[in-house]
């Protein structure tokens, strides 16, 4: 395939898809198992330590908790700081220090999604919280300072300008086309070469203008704007495909981030989970021009996720 410039479905974000033969999935270095054995036996998130910190939410009993949520002790935003207003929480996904998220059973991952929903419900009630980001950093290069499997919620008054811009563009698209741009995208990607998985509730595909190697999105088929609106069965569908995708990313030995964006005051958004492996290092072109070069075409990435490579 010859390199081509592609534009995001709705935002003014551009990428050059420029595949290199050398970076096909089977040429990427094989998984390193020492990644799992290097980790120390105990850390601040292990039950022995974290049980001393009062949880804001937990699943399971006192000594046998499954998921444990605490306030971030080094927050960038806080409710008593009008200059940087908001709140941050850390979700410890398992008491077991050695387990990665893709090792957890499907029902455990579904419980984690339910925890995200419960915390979103609690945080959106706080006065002046307009933006709630749920995210996970896995692996050193993607920014995790602790290996014990965890994710975070960042809730603030500040809505990033690119999201306000996206909201406006989604609104305009609906005005002209009478439909949600992402509902249309789901229809389109269900059939095309970037399709990965679909059941009665969710779809997974690699986006047309993927900014990152092996970027993949999971979306509910229903037009719902945030995670609190998902049903129990939708959590399970999400968990099933999320686990499979994370296993595939672990096999590539790539660190990854994933995130849900949620705008409290825009209830017409279509929820998505973006999973972004961090295989490529952004260099001169990206830093200088903002134009990203992605050497893995999303069509190739989709083949990999579908198990065809
Ligand atoms: Zn630990
Ligand atoms: Zn929609």
Automatic annotation (TrEMBL):
Q: Which species does the entry assign this protein to?
A: Candidatus Kerfeldbacteria bacterium RIFCSPHIGHO2_02_FULL_42_14
Keywords, sorted A to Z: Carbohydrate metabolism, Metal-binding, Nucleotidyltransferase, Transferase, Zinc
Which amino acid positions bind Zn(2+), per UniProt?
A: 43, 46, 97, 148
> How is the co-factor bound, per the entry?
Binds 1 zinc ion per subunit.
Which molecular function GO terms apply here? UDP-glucose:hexose-1-phosphate uridylyltransferase activity; zinc ion binding
What's one GO BP annotation on this UniProt entry? Answer: galactose metabolic process
Catalytic residues per the record?
150 (tele-ump-histidine intermediate)
Q: What is this protein called?
A: Galactose-1-phosphate uridyl transferase N-terminal domain-containing protein
Keyword Heme assigned to the entry: answer is: no
Q: Which PANTHER family match?
A: ADP-GLUCOSE PHOSPHORYLASE
Its needed co-factors are: Zn(2+)
| Galactose-1-phosphate uridyl transferase N-terminal domain boundaries | 6-160
């Amino acid at each position: 395939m010859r390199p081509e410039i592609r534009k995001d479905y709705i935002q003014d974000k551009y990428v050059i898809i420029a595949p290199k033969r050398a970076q096909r999935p089977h040429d990427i270095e094989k998984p390193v198992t020492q990644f799992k054995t290097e980790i120390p036996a105990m850390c601040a998130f292990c039950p022995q330590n974290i049980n001393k910190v009062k949880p804001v939410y937990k699943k399971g009993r006192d000594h046998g908790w499954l998921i444990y949520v605490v306030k971030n002790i080094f927050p960038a935003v806080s409710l008593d700081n009008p200059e940087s207003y908001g709140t941050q929480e850390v979700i410890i996904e398992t008491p077991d220090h050695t387990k990665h998220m893709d090792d957890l059973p499907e029902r455990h991952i579904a419980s984690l999604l339910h925890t995200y929903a419960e915390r979103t419900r609690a945080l959106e009630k706080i006065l002046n919280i307009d933006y709630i980001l749920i995210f996970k950093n896995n692996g050193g290069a993607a920014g995790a300072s602790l290996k014990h499997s965890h994710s975070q919620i960042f809730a603030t008054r500040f809505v990033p300008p690119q999201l306000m811009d996206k909201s406006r563009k989604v609104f305009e698209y609906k005005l002209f086309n009478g439909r949600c741009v992402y509902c249309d995208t789901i229809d389109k990607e269900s059939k095309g070469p970037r399709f990965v998985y679909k059941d009665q509730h969710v779809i997974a595909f690699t986006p047309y203008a993927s900014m990152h190697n092996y970027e993949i999105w999971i979306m509910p088929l229903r037009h719902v704007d945030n995670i609190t609106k998902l049903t129990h069965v939708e959590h399970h569908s999400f968990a099933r495909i999320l686990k499979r995708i994370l296993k595939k990313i672990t096999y590539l030995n790539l660190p990854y981030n994933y995130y849900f964006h949620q705008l409290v005051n825009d209830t017409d958004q279509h929820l998505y989970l973006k999973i972004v492996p961090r295989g490529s290092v952004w260099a001169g072109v990206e830093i200088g021009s903002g134009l990203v070069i992605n050497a893995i075409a999303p069509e190739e990435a989709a083949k990999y996720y579908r198990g065809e490579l």
